[in-house]
Write the structure tokens for this entry.
Amino acid sequence: MTRDDAKNILLLYRHGTADAGDPQMAEALALVKQDSELARWFEEHCARQEVLRAKFRQIPAPAGLKEQIISEQMAREKIVVWRRNVFLTAAATAIIVAALTLAALWLHPPASDNSLAIYRSRMVGVALRGYAMDVATNNPVQIRAYLEQNHAPADFVLPPPLKKVAMTGCAIESWQGAKVSMICFRTGKPLPPGEQSDLWLFVVDCASVKNAPPPGPPQLAKVNQLVTAVWIQGDRLYLLGTEGDEQTIRQLL
């Protein structure tokens, strides 16, 4: 399977469904783990899907829509077969047009979309879909030294509860031309085989993310399987993520 073949298949991938069980989808997902460029594309694709889903969920249902649907359904039952076929053809055309429009958005997203929603989804995707730590150590001094040497944010300030959680290493990610410091932690809970971390902190310059929240209490949000907290301190934007609920992450802030 080529990279382009995998992209065509993964365009139909829906996170949180049984899609991964499909043989072709499973083969494409396996290629994602081997191809860094494909993995980057897949992360951005999934992030855009999450943003579209969120926007669709925000659309309010018009008043009286239920009554209108029931009324139109009763009227359609009285339409003769040929008129019903015309209606179905028109509906199918509308669906195709909508699908092509969404595909165009996924394949050709705005290059300058650096919103907080996209950033948060992208970083959560990094944590969930696998990564390689640049430095594996529980020594905070070594982690900060590595980040500073590679011009990534190293002056991050940890909340007091988070200082008590053991670090496992770090990596440097890229976001819209800016470097993101990814600090990995282990809370002490049992981990699946091969996993080294279950808590991740991402630190980036505020200026590189649009719609960053104002200074104040952390803003919590569930993204895929992770509960996240976002806050501003100084000129840095912090994103903390882990599995669990709001109470789980509040205990770390």
